[in-house]
Each structure stands twice: as structure tokens, then as C-alpha cells.
Specification:
The relative contact order is 0.15. Helix 5 links the parallel strand 8 and strand 9. The chain is an alpha/beta fold. The radius of gyration is 21 Å and the shape is globular. The protein is built from 16 helices and 16 strands.
């Protein structure tokens, strides 16, 4: 079954921060996106494609909207949704005061299911169609999340946190139980529909060498699963890691010694890396999640996109809820611009939007499935309303070009801008 969507359409073919420049994206002032069985069939100017459509194909007109690929969030915590915007701590104290008590509740399957529904509703409300998600230490939280995602046919990646020290006893597993629980969850959920699994040691502070060895074992046994964890977010965290692993030359070396680096590994934050760490991440084709909102909110520091580019590292955008204080990728892009400004670096509006769509898909190894509207890709997309608020309507009405409009959306936009979210060619959220 085919359907067609007529709107202004923008998508990326490559990184506008590289040599492609304006050739990195396609923009259709009056575009047509043709979908068949949940996948992109073709895209182009409506004037060129309309005559070729069969009369029975339904053409859906999205008036006064900009149609984009769905946003990709490369780092977010499902069990922290209820503590979003919790006041006034840096990372280690924030975990003890807010995050750990919230995550203790997720042993209750009924509660986890209720919160999974709220979490996914917020993702769709903000135009996020794919995310790399931390669940809690409890297998019940993973089951609850994946069950809800499966019902909505979402492309999501998630995993059970592995944590066997330096946390409350109620959240502590062991190297063996973490391995067994993760293995069972992989067998149950990985590659079921559009769902995939990520082996998830929270960070080196909360995993013993024995547990990291079990994470390595899982990665060897299931070579197509992901690895997600945190890296060099906070100075106190880094000091703790080096105390716990005195044999390691730096924070990254902890993960490297357990063979946890690679093209299916995503490291969140990466703010305070040394030169050897940047080079090693590059050599292993590892991926980074840039989480500007949480880095500002928790006072952690400023990520260097310039250093990532120098090492040809693949970078995605992460909201990092609940350390991040919103689900909106647009607002997160606004914070990313401010971080880059403070670093005296550059990130164009188009580069930011690329990182939130095709760049995010590349960092998750999914650019063959999502991220733009090339033929055969899965048809996940969002419809943006540039006049969602009186201020936005005034500002975008005075924009001289598309790049200026995108920048205004990232600086002034939020969930109100998301008019519709579509999953595999089916409407999953409508603002009005």
C-alpha cells in the first residue's frame, strides 16, 4: 500500500560540516515523499512526481510545515523521567540524591510499564523516533520498555544497567546475574521487530573488573548488539575511576582493557578526554554522544566538537534525560550551540540538525535504515510548525533563508513545534 506526503521537505545526504557543503542536504520547497509498506519509495519535487502517482494513492498535504526525518537521541535514561529538572547537584551527588532512588522503583513491573508509556509519549511528542536508552538494573524495566516500543513499532535500542558496586544494595547485581539477565534479555528482545539490545555497564565507577569482563563476554557472544556507557563526564568521576583502576593509564583505558571499544559502542559525554583517548576512540571507530543540556545542567563541562572532528569521530546528540532537563532534541541543539560558542568553535544550524538525524543514525550504525529519505529507508519522520508560537511565527517570518529558519527553530523551539510524528508511515502523534 502506498501513500504520499506533500510538504516542504529537508533531509541530509552527508555531513554539512565536511567538504560537501550545501550538497550535504536536499531541500524541496514543494516536495513529495512517497511511502510503500512503511518504507520510503521515492522523494522529489511534487511537480515532477505527482503525474507519476496512481490515482488511488492517498496524498496527505502538510500545509505550512517542514517535514524532516525523525530525531535520533543517542543517550537517554528511561528510569529517570520522573526526576527530570531535579535541583542543584553535580553528577555524583545527583546520582545518590535523585537518580538511584528513582531507579529503585523499577523492580515493580506495573510501575515500570506505566512510566514506559509516559516516557515513550514524551519521545514522540518531541519528534524522537529512535533512541539509545538506559533502563534500570531490573530486567522488568527492559521488558516494560520494549513491550511498549513493540506495540508502537518503534526502532529503539535499550539495555539493562549492569552495576555491582558503589550503588545502593537494592540496585546492585553481580557479575554473574548481570550476565545472565542480559543474556536472557538479548535472546528475548534483540532484533525482535525494530528492537535491538545494548549491553549497558553504567560506568566504570559502578562495575567491578569481573562485571566488565562479563560485558566483554556478551559482546563476543552477540557481536551485533551495542555497548553503551558513560565516559569522562565529571572530574570527581574521573578521579574515582582512576582510584578504582590504578593499573589503567586513563579512564578510556578501563573500557579498552575489556575490549569494549568499537563501531557498535557509544560513549556518552566525553568532555575531559586526553589526547591519547581521542586517538584511541578514533582508531577503534567508537561513537560519541554529545549531551549539552545535561553537561550544562550538572555543571560537568563543555564537549569539543572540533576535537571529535579532528579525529573523524562519529557524533550524535543525546538529551540525557533526566540529567538533561528536557526531551526536546530542538532545545538540546540550542544548548549544543551555546556549548560550542563557549568553546569558541563552530557548529552551523545545518550541522546541528544533521547530528540529530543522519549523524545520530550513523553513530548507531543505522544509517542504512533511518536518518534520511533515501529509497528503502524506514519512513520515520516529523512535521515541524515554524509558526508554533507567536514569537516563532514572527522570527521565522523574517528569516532570509532555510539555515536561519533551522537556527531559529533550535533556539526557540520545543515540543510545540512538533505537529506530527510518523512511525514507519503511520501517524503516532498529533499535536492538535
Amino acid at each position: 500500500m502506498q501513500q504520499a506526503h506533500r510538504s516542504r521537505i529537508l533531509h541530509f545526504l552527508g555531513d554539512p560540516g565536511g567538504q560537501l557543503g550545501e550538497k550535504a542536504y536536499e531541500y524541496f520547497e514543494d516536495g513529495l515523499l512517497v511511502i510503500q509498506e512503511g518504507h520510503v519509495l521515492k522523494i522529489g519535487d511534487a511537480h515532477d512526481l505527482m503525474p507519476s502517482l496512481s490515482p488511488e494513492i492517498k496524498v496527505i498535504k502538510h500545509n505550512n510545515t517542514l517535514l524532516l526525518p525523525g530525531f535520533v537521541d543517542t543517550h537517554i535514561h528511561f528510569p529517570q523521567v520522573e526526576i527530570i529538572a531535579a535541583y542543584g547537584e553535580q553528577l555524583m551527588d545527583w546520582l545518590k540524591k535523585y537518580a538511584f532512588p528513582a531507579e529503585e522503583k523499577y523492580c515493580d513491573r506495573k510501575y515500570a510499564k506505566q512510566m514506559a508509556r509516559i516516557f515513550i509519549e514524551q519521545l514522540l511528542r518531541n519528534g524522537t523516533t529512535t533512541a539509545l536508552v538506559f533502563c534500570s538494573v531490573h530486567p522488568e524495566s527492559v521488558d516494560a520498555f520494549f513491550e511498549q516500543c513493540g506495540e508502537k513499532n518503534l526502532r529503539m535500542i535499550a539495555g539493562k544497567v549492569m552495576m555491582d558496586r558503589n550503588c545502593p544494595s537494592s540496585l546492585r547485581d553481580t557479575a554473574e546475574t548481570a550476565y545472565n539477565d542480559s543474556k536472557n534479555l538479548i535472546d528475548k528482545w534483540h532484533n525482535k521487530g525494530r528492537l535491538q539490545y545494548a549491553v549497558t555497564p553504567r560506568f566504570a565507577v559502578t562495575s567491578t573488573p569481573a562485571q566488565l569482563a562479563m560485558a566483554r563476554k556478551l559482546m563476543y557472544e552477540y557481536p551485533d548488539v551495542y555497548l553503551q556507557t558513560h565516559l569522562s563526564e565529571n572530574h570527581e568521576e574521573i578521579s574515582l575511576v582512576l582510584d578504582l583502576f590504578p593499573e589503567c593509564k586513563n579512564y578510556l583505558d578501563v573500557y579498552d582493557r575489556y575490549d569494549l571499544l568499537g563501531e557498535r559502542s557509544v560513549f556518552a559525554h566525553c568532555i575531559h578526554l586526553g589526547g591519547d583517548e581521542w586517538k584511541r576512540l578514533s582508531k577503534t571507530n567508537s561513537n560519541l554522544a554529545f549531551c549539552p543540556s545535561s553537561n550544562l545542567f550538572l555543571g560537568s563541562g563543555l564537549f569539543s566538537l572540533e576535537k571529535a572532528d579532528e579525529q573523524n569521530l562519529t557524533v550524535g546528540i543525546g538529551t540525557d534525560v533526566g540529567g538533561g532537563n528536557n526531551f526536546s532534541v530542538l532545545q538540546t541543539l540550542g544548548d549544543a550551540y551555546k556549548v560550542i560558542q563557549l568553546k569558541k568553535e563552530k557548529m552551523s544550524p545545518m550541522r546541528g540538525l544533521y547530528l540529530a538525524t543522519l549523524g545520530g543514525a550513523k553513530s548507531l550504525g543505522l544509517s542504512n535504515k533511518i536518518g534520511n529519505f533515501e529509497s528503502g529507508k524506514e519512513a520515520d519522520f516529523v512535521c515541524l510548525d515554524s509558526a508554533a508560537t507567536p514569537l516563532l511565527e514572527m522570527r521565522t517570518g523574517n528569516c532570509s533563508d532555510l539555515s536561519e529558519e533551522i537556527f531559529a527553530l533550535s533556539m526557540l523551539g520545543d515540543d510545540r513545534v512538533i505537529k506530527e510524528t510518523w512511525i514507519a508511515g503511520a501517524k503516532a502523534y498529533e499535536r492538535d
